[in-house]
Design a protein that fits this description.
This protein is mainly α. The chain is about 70% helix and about 5% strand. The chain has a two-stranded antiparallel sheet. Helix 2 runs antiparallel to helix 3, helix 5 packs antiparallel against helix 6 and helix 5 packs parallel to helix 7.
């Protein structure tokens, strides 16, 4: 009877095989869209609330005293503070996911076009790893900006903002190098990203320079604040546009999730290993 059961199970496996439930989802483009659409939409909401001065929930009315304010000014107090923390923390998670996908994509492309022992391949690999680490640090910095508002701890807030903007700019510059070195994209896209990288160098630096200028005259101080805020917002928008430019290659990527449901080979209660003397 045991031999008959074994043969019967063998025939059943050959006939039915393994029962699988495959769930195939294309996530690359969805992750990319969420990476730039969520922060953009969130800051549009917080800036709207900020300029409307709708902070009556906490008994104060935080109306800006300048026409153009920093991004972080809109998430300093409730309800912008809570909205900002939500969108930044969620957006940072999507950002890291996209960075990992991009890292894996470049790694696969490099294997196709460069020998594993070539010096260029070694350099590309080091730049890849450095860019990924710097990108993750930048994402952590964005969370720090939301966690430590200006009125809570200005030093930590500015340090985290420096990590985000400095790390984000350096991440993009390193990937511009990878695009040029490996010629992964079309010439048009490579040129576009190169221009984005060059502009980012200036906007990031000028944001810091004008933010550090201190003058005694209040009107002049407000002018410098607006100029610095304008460069900061420009840097942020260039970040978003950079990730938007990846739609062409992300559409070609396929991220699949597969769940396998395997029936046991033996009936319930029967030992998996049958020892007999």
């Amino acid at each position: 009877s045991d031999l008959y059961w074994r043969e019967n199970q063998k025939k059943k496996r050959e006939k039915e095989g393994r029962k699988r439930t495959n769930m195939k989802v294309n996530l690359a483009s969805i992750l990319l869209i969420l990476t730039y659409a969520l922060p953009l939409g969130g800051f549009m909401v917080t800036f709207t609330l900020f300029y409307l001065g709708d902070d009556s929930f906490n008994g104060t009315k935080q109306t800006p005293d300048v026409p153009l304010s920093f991004l972080s000014d809109s998430i300093n107090y409730y309800p912008g503070q809570n909205i900002g923390a939500l969108i930044i923390s969620t957006g940072a998670a999507f950002l890291v996911s996209v960075m990992l996908v991009r890292h894996h994509e470049i790694n696969l492309r490099a294997k196709q076009f460069l020998p594993s022992t070539s010096p260029k391949r070694v350099t590309v690999r080091r730049v890849q790893v450095a860019a990924l680490v710097i990108g993750i640090i930048a994402a952590i910095g964005s969370n720090g900006v939301a966690a430590f508002q200006e009125h809570v701890n200005m030093t930590v807030h500015l340090s985290m903002a420096g990590l985000f903007f400095g790390g984000g700019t350096l991440y993009i510059l390193l990937h511009v190098y990878l695009d040029i070195a490996l010629q992964l994209e079309s010439k048009c896209l490579r040129t576009l990203r190169l221009m984005q990288g060059i502009v980012l160098i200036f906007t990031t630096a000028l944001t810091l320079v004008f933010n550090r200028i201190h003058v005694k005259d209040a009107d002049e101080a407000r002018v410098f604040i607006q100029i610095s805020a304008g460069f900061e917002i420009s840097t942020f928008l260039i970040y978003l546009s950079y990730f938007m430019s990846h739609h062409a290659n992300f559409k070609k990527l396929d991220i699949s999730l597969r769940a396998d449901d395997m029936y046991p080979s033996h009936p319930a209660g029967r030992p998996l290993i049958d020892k007999r003397v």
